[in-house]
Records
---
Amino acid sequence: MPRRLITAAIALLITVVLASPATAGLETSKDQQIADESVLTSSDVPSGFEQVPPDDDDTTPASKVCRTVRRGRDALDDAPNAEVEFRTRGDASGSALIGNKVAVFETTKAATRALRAYADDDTGRCFEQNYRKIFESELAGADGASVEVTSSRYAPDGGDAAVGYEVEIEASAEGDSQTFYVDLAVYRVGRTIDAFAYFNSGSQPPSDDVAAMTDAGLGRLEDAL
């Protein structure tokens, strides 16, 4: 598999859900503090991960099927929020990434609207469309390039309400193939949204690690509220 594909996947896959850096106004300093105190920390993630600045490039297609995902993401960006990202060093044998974003809304109703955008019927198709676009772009011109993307929706445990998606990407080029996995989960906790994105190449993100990190983040958010 071309090295550039590994690098591009690490850099871009999380931005579908978490697209822009944290913003805050002075009038919402208390809510900003809640967000800052609730995101994952280095002590929450497995060894081998390094914290890096979140990638703020918007890679979501301007298509009708992604309209609700963009609306949900914009709502998270407009509220006081904090975002963190952790990566392993990608190489030919594999790579992994963890992203977490917490947004604090004025009301539970506003947070519910944001979550509803991620639970739209088109959301899974948007993820499939976007990841296919990313990989096809990176493999353009490579011999025997092909990309297949599938997604499935699930109901995560935790929070007051939640929606999750598991995405599998099978990419082939230059006589080699590799499978990439993305686990996306968005939780509402009171008037907040806690979004997690886990990416792994070669195998699914370890379920025990995902559960431990998610529980740590949700617990910290509940304590901050």
---
Amino acid sequence: MSIQNKIRVIKRVDTIVSELIQKYPRHTSAFPELVKLSESLNQLLEYLSHLDQLAANYTTNEIDRYILSINLNLDILKSELEKADYTKILKGVKVIKTILKFHPTKYSFFEFIVIWIYELIYFI
């Protein structure tokens, strides 16, 4: 259940990126980076979706690799997007980073409340 909350938030950020892909035409320099950011988010989603299938002695060290990829795309997009669009994506990625600090598979009611508050602050 805890992973489902994280997946829901990541999908929300991915829809924001998809909207920006529609907004920026193909010939702009932001378009390929937005596509790469969407791919990085989808890879993180796929990893979290398969996290339940891992054995009991799994590690979550792989998450850092996906976050580094997302951070690289964000750094490149900083100069290529309008400020309002960039801050939308940046806020979403901040929420993703914060919720991934919690243990990915153990469900806690506290984590659910924190995720709900972050969604309220950043997405509404």
---
Amino acid sequence: MLVKNYKKFLNLSKVLNNSFRHTGPDPLRLGTQSLKFEILDDEMLKVLFITTVSFPSETIMREARKRWETEAISMIKGALEELENQYKESFNDTIKCRIIDESFNDSFEFVSYSMYNPIKRALYRVGVFVEVED
């Protein structure tokens, strides 16, 4: 994708840079949760939320999936609000972030699955695209 507003692209990069833990959205994170932002261009971000989940059976996993989905979306929304606030504070300019609902994608990756242990563990991932507007 082409960058139309290079200044906005650089400013987003500065706000989202958390390589050295100086800046970037950091809502109340737990050790088992992670949020990653990828800047595609000045109008689009890709956000990936990953958490570790445990459950005794696949039936319970299916029942709990809706709750994990709600938690993931709320974490992403919180991080986007923080991004908007930091952008405004840093550059005295406003942006509006909107999750593209059609881009919602979630998946499980089993980490521990044994017939001798009733507790199964998996990584639960939620990915969305976010539109960034001036």
